[in-house]
Amino acid sequence: MDWGAIFGNAAVELISPTTAAYALAALGLAIHFGFTGLLNFGQAGFMLLGAYGYAIPALKLGWPFWACVLTALAASVIFALILGIPTLRLRADYLAIVTIAAAEVLRLIFTTNEFDAVTGSANGLSGFQTDLLALNPFPEGRYGFGPFVFDNRVWFFLVIAWIVVAIAAVFTWLIMRSPWGRVVKGIREDEDAVRSLGKNVYSYKIQSLVLGGLLGTLAGILFVLPRAVVPSYFQPTLTFFIYAILLLGGAATILGPIVGSIVFWVLLSFFSGFVSRAVEAGWLPFMSQVQAGQLRFILVGVAIMLIVVFMPQGILGNRKDLAFVK
Amino acid sequence: MLLSSETTSSRPVKTTGLHVGDAVPGAKKHDPILIADSVKRTFGGLTAVDIEHVEIPRGAITALIGPNGAGKTTFFNLLTGFDKPDTGTWSFDGRSLAHVPAYRVARMGLIRTFQLTKSLALLSVMENMKLGAKNQVGENLFRSLIPAIWRKQDAEIEAKAMDLLTRFKLDAKKDDYAASMSGGQRKLLEMARALMSDPTLVMLDEPMAGVNPALKQSLLDHILDLKASGMTVLFVEHDMHMVRHIADWVIVMAEGKVVAEGDPYTVMEDPAVVDAYLGAHHDTDLGTDAEHVEALKELIDDEQ
């Protein structure tokens, strides 16, 4: 059994661009769910808009990368407003229903053959990173240290991703310690009470939905930079993984989503490496390689259940909160 | 009766001469702060509130009483924008409140509390208080990013909150979660929080419900303090001792309507009030209902 490779692959997930992208998406969800109490079950939809909002103008219109990022962000704001304006006056559950449905509608629109010329339907889009890669300061080749050996392309995306995550974390920290954050946290506890104190709850909820959605959209861009855009990435399970990361790290924390994402991906990689090699070595005779590929999700699920049962506040959450959870 | 509230604290000074003419339902006031006209709210077939005319006197403590289901809380919700009536006009300080959303009503200086206390459980007591302050620059998303813009105002708000918390004897709990406090303390916190915005009219929905007698006395004093500092108070309450003790004016509601108004001593004698609480036939002997007995007998005969 090659333990070195298993741990090496798991260690790579500590800093991989995908980990950063999931961390950022979870941070957006922390603004929604952890701080404001909005049940957004469509974070995958926001990420999809980031991915396609970036890739389509880059490929089809040849726009520079910054214009593509702005297009994605604009699409995200419009999506958030369409979802939020009718539902945020209603009870919290309605937003959950509408967001999960809207995210699926988006994914199916981008999957259908009807718009193949623009979206590439199920095959998706690739090669949209050219404009950004022209700015890559890393010299050609594969290098690194220990298990962290990547080519210059991955190093570039990795650095961008973590810089964006760091900026987003500082931004979220700044707004959540301000009076704005106080109002939003008050809305999470009891929106009628906050309304009775003269705050425009509806407006704050929309601001929060747009902000968290923007982080989700940026996460979508970071997620697809090292790969091609394929609609099947953006299934509802993506949203559930991000919820798992959020709960793992601590819902109303800034660093929780980041730590949660790292733990999630390291565990996932470790289990997948371990199980597939265990099958290879004949330790699990009742199991095929294909089944082994699915088992990792079961094991991650069990690990997350254990954490939620024995550490419901998450890794970085405040233990004190727990005493008062209704 | 050695230690009753009557002997330990001085009797509050009642404000009198609030009304014009007779103290009848819908009586005119010399200086009304809140006027409601033909406010009606139905839930399906049930008319919860149907008020022709009512005025709340300024600078006084008005009690809104009535049996359960009389529509007191619904009336509160209508006045504060938490619910919309089917018809009617109502104004606060001369400004119409129709179609004004709840948060704007609060900004106009009409602050309410809730029957089921709404403390913000996972916010500290101090954060609860600070949330009550009006016109905070840091509550704007873009300004919130630069602490230099809001820090000074926030410090002022904190000082004011500390002052109020000391008055309500909650200063020792300022860093605790609101969730860690007792029910009575939460009532105090809710009232203190309402005062953070310097309201002109404070509406308290059952401030005494579930509060122990010792805390009740201090809550009473706080309500009297509100009046002393020039605020108008309107409260819903079932505790008649309290109503008699501090209210300057009492409005009685039953089945959605105002059935009586007056000062607390005379209004309790009003037959309409006795009817509202006990039913109009409470002293009629039902045993000698000859007509029904005859009809029943005939029915039984027919069956045979």
From TrEMBL, chain A:
Record keywords, A-Z: Cell membrane, Membrane, Transmembrane, Transmembrane helix
Membrane topology: Multi-pass membrane protein
Pfam families: BPD_transp_2 (PF02653)
Major location category of this protein: membrane
InterPro entries: ABC_transp_permease (IPR001851), LivM-like (IPR043428)
Transmembrane segments: 63-85, 92-110, 154-175, 209-229, 241-274, 295-316
Compartment list: Cell membrane
Superkingdom of the organism of origin: Bacteria
Protein name, entry field: Branched-chain amino acid ABC transporter permease
